Amino acid sequence: MTFHGVLLGLRVIVFDPKEARELYRLGFYGKPLGIPKPRDAEFNAPLELGLVEAVYLAEKGLLSVVDENGANITPDELAARARELIPRFDLIYKVYKELRDRGYIARSGLKYGADFAVYEKGPGIDHAPYLIHVIEAGEEIDPLEIVRAGRLSHSVRKAFILAITGPGDAPTRYLMFKWSKP
What we know:
Number of helices: 5
Radius of gyration: 17 Å
Strand content: 25-35%
Family: Belongs to the tRNA-intron endonuclease family. Archaeal short subfamily.
Active site: 119, 127, 158
Pfam family, one: tRNA_int_endo
EC number: 4.6.1.16
Enzyme class: lyase
């Protein structure tokens, strides 16, 4: 099945509520408009997808995207637009794709100051046990940022993980930090 969405700024909207429910049910993609924490996929609302997940779904052949004038947008064109609008898009997308391909549910971690909050089963079923921050290999990171992120993740009972990656086929390394008291 191919779902249909419209690119509007930083979002792709799936307006058909039936398609929205099916896409959400497929892997907890997107957020139903007007429903902050859906308990299940039995909502009757359009679905809002972030560009990262929209590019992923388009590349998988699951999502067809048009612009506000109805012109088709290819997955490559959608990724190009995402690069223009989202700093570090390629690094973030690479980690998102790896997590999704491994069966994890990666959602925005913005409210925790991370790139992703990652679920093993899905929102509404379990709490996200991991917060992931993506950095580029060779990028310097202030040790205080690690302490802040570790302390925050500990306070919300999540593990803090750095995903260190590079462009192209460079492997991604995942470093998990555990909070300890000296």
